[in-house]
Amino acid sequence: MPAQKILIYPHPVLKKMCRPVPAIDDEIASLVADLLDTMREGPGSVGVAAPQIGVSLRVCVVDVSASRLGKENNHGQLVMINPEIVARQGTAVMREGCMSVPDYTGEVERATEITVRFLDGAGHPGEIEASGFEAVAIQHEMDHLDGVLFLDRIVSLKTGLFRRKNYK
């Protein structure tokens, strides 16, 4: 499947709550393939959520293994359908960016450890404990499923929002 066009804020789909996936079928398999291709081709991307490509379903993908921040602590490529955070611990402020908000980055407070339940791409239930950068990336992508952008979570609009110098 080819990489899909990323919707840019303020596109209205980015602010909508996504519907749960009722069943894993060929349409969902195709969506997952599109998300994975889009993530791989995105500049510095470690995740993509379905609404970013115009689909209001609770599906996202995350893979921080190629990032210097996530290289040592990750679960590899994650396909998460109907994900739910069931536990959170700790907090830290970290700089985030988003392909849907290409001109800015911002400082966002996130849990440092999370437990997430989800269905994988084959419809099998999964549960992982994620920490550090991987936990942040998962929370960021799951926010997209609730119509929340990192801009909504900036710790301080005066000091926590930054114009991106370059985006490659």
Explain what you see.
The protein has a single domain (12-163), classed as Peptide deformylase (Peptide Deformylase). Strands 1, 2, 3, 4, 5 and 6 form a six-stranded antiparallel beta sheet that branches. The protein is globular. It contains two helices and six strands, in the order αβββββαβ. The model has no long low-confidence stretch (mean pLDDT 96). The chain is 18% helix and 34% strand. It is α+β, with helices and mostly antiparallel strands.
Mean pLDDT: 96
CATH superfamily: Peptide deformylase
Main sheet makeup: 6 strands, antiparallel
Identify the overall geometry. globular
Looking at the overall shape, the CATH architecture is Alpha-Beta Complex
Please state the CA-atom Rg, rounded to the nearest Å. 15 Å
> Tell me, what is the CATH class?
Alpha Beta
Helix % is 10-25%
Remind me, CATH topology?
Peptide Deformylase
How many individual β-strands? Answer: 6
| Overall structural domain count | 1
Strand content of the residues, in percent? 25-35%
pLDDT < 50 runs, ≥5 residues: none
- For the termini, the CA-CA separation is 22 Å
Number of helices: 2
What class would the helix/strand composition place it in? alpha+beta
Order of helices and strands: HEEEEEHE
